[in-house]
Amino acid sequence: MLGTHRWLRASLFIILGGALGACSERLPNAPEPLDLIQPIEIATPDQAVRFEFETSTRNFYPGRPYTLELEVQRQGQESGIGPDMATLPIPFEVSFQRWEAGAWQDVPTSDSYTARARNLGEPLPAWHTSDAWRYARLSSGSGGRHRWFVITLPMKNDARYRLDVRTVQPTEALQHYSSRLRVRADPMPGK
């Protein structure tokens, strides 16, 4: 009887350890991860950036989500309190296309606000005024550096893509910030 309890206890620890290990594992990355960066002047409307890239087994892992992000960093020693980044609406016009059958085909995208409204029935923020625009959502930030999630990029392996991004409104609150757009695997999967 005592041996059975020890065996059951040991089995329970092994199962719990395996389950916790599986939950904490990150999805693997590709050998040469896709990580593309382009500067953009976010405070000025009609600033455009184009990413053209191909996915392969060297730079793409099919199990990971890939995103378009906006990263900003304050320039100089600005005194005073900066803008409230969490409530700052930053819209973009985004066109995402895949090369198929000899032509560029549109790939549908949506921002996180539209996805939440569609999937959870939550109302859109009052400033979310255009279905054609993709609004960035603050992901993280401190010390003058901030990162926004713009869209998830629905991609597949062995494909060619074109991503055009354009600012559509002046974001004057960020005029003292340098900014760049980044395409990469989501840095936080599995967490």
Describe, in plain words, how this protein is organized in 3D.
The structure is a single chain. By secondary structure, this protein is of the alpha+beta class. The chain has a single domain, classed as Sandwich (Jelly Rolls). Helix content is 17%, strand content 37%. It contains two helices and ten strands, in the order αβββββαβββββ. The chain has a five-stranded antiparallel β-sheet, with no helix packed on it. Strands 2, 4, 5, 6 and 9 form a five-stranded antiparallel β-sheet that branches. The longest helix has 23 residues. About 5% of the residues have low confidence.
The level-1 CATH class: Mainly Beta
Sequence of strands across the biggest β-sheet:
1-10-3-8-7
Name the shape in a single word: globular
Structural class: alpha+beta
What is the topology?
Blueprint: H1 2-24, E1 35-39, E2 48-54, E3 66-74, E4 91-100, E5 103-106, H2 112-120, E6 133-135, E7 137-142, E8 145-153, E9 160-167, E10 177-185
Antiparallel strand pairs: 1-10, 2-9, 3-8, 3-10, 4-5, 4-6, 4-9, 7-8
Give a summary of the structure in a few sentences.
17% of the residues lie in helices and 37% in strands. The protein has 191 residues and is an alpha+beta fold.
